Every structure is written in structure tokens, then in C-alpha cells.
């Protein structure tokens, strides 16, 4: 079993018009930009393969304001 430790948790930022953005670092690639559109049917748009789902989940746990 692999245990992950995170030095920092990515912040989920409101970039306007009900769109949120976070940036997940990737081990061998440029950081992955992820956009979240929570209105209506929630939608996630990412700029590539999400290597680190654990870190992505930690960002959600840190800030749940877009669910309100």
C-alpha cells in the first residue's frame, strides 16, 4: 500500500461567473488546471490526466463553499 503525504493542499478559487479553478501538480508534467462548474448539473473540466486524485480530494475537503 502506498501512503501519500501532502506538503500543501491546493486552493480552489472562484474565478468568476460561478466557475472555480484549482491547480494540481503532476510528477512529470505541467500542473493540471481543473475547472469546476457547480451550478445545475456539476461539471469538472481538466486540462489533462489527473494523476493525483488524493490531492484533488483534499482541495475539496479544505474548501466546500462552492457546494453552498
UniProtKB/TrEMBL annotation:
Protein name per UniProt: Metallo-beta-lactamase domain protein
Amino acid at each position: 500500500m502506498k501512503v501519500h503525504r501532502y506538503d500543501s493542499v491546493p486552493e480552489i478559487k472562484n474565478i468568476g461567473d460561478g466557475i472555480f479553478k484549482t491547480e494540481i501538480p503532476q510528477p512529470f508534467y505541467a500542473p493540471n488546471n481543473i475547472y469546476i462548474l457547480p451550478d445545475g448539473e456539476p461539471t469538472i473540466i481538466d486540462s489533462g490526466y489527473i494523476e493525483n486524485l488524493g490531492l484533488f480530494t483534499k482541495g475539496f475537503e479544505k474548501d466546500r463553499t462552492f457546494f453552498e
